[in-house]
Write a structure and sequence with these properties.
Layout: E1 4-5, E2 9-12, H1 21-25, E3 32-35, E4 41-44, H2 56-60, E5 66-68, H3 74-83
Antiparallel strand pairs: 1-2, 2-5, 3-4
Amino acid sequence: MSNVHGHIVRVDWSLCYGCEKCITACPTDVFNIVTDRAGRVVVDPIRESDCILCLVCEIVCPVKAIDIEQKEGSEDTLQSLLEGSD
């Protein structure tokens, strides 16, 4: 059984320790805190269809447990979020 959850937003539960930085950073509320079968607190990308591919969660994850399927425009979306709107 794979420890990776999600298809577009992939979270490797063997690395995740539930710090919630991705939850705080995500502008579209993709993640929830869950408890895995071993009783560990981890994040699950249960609303990955809401992901705007901004890559923020991937960047803030301290253990690199998150991998986003990048598509054309992902870097532009991230840059727009970092710059903010005027």
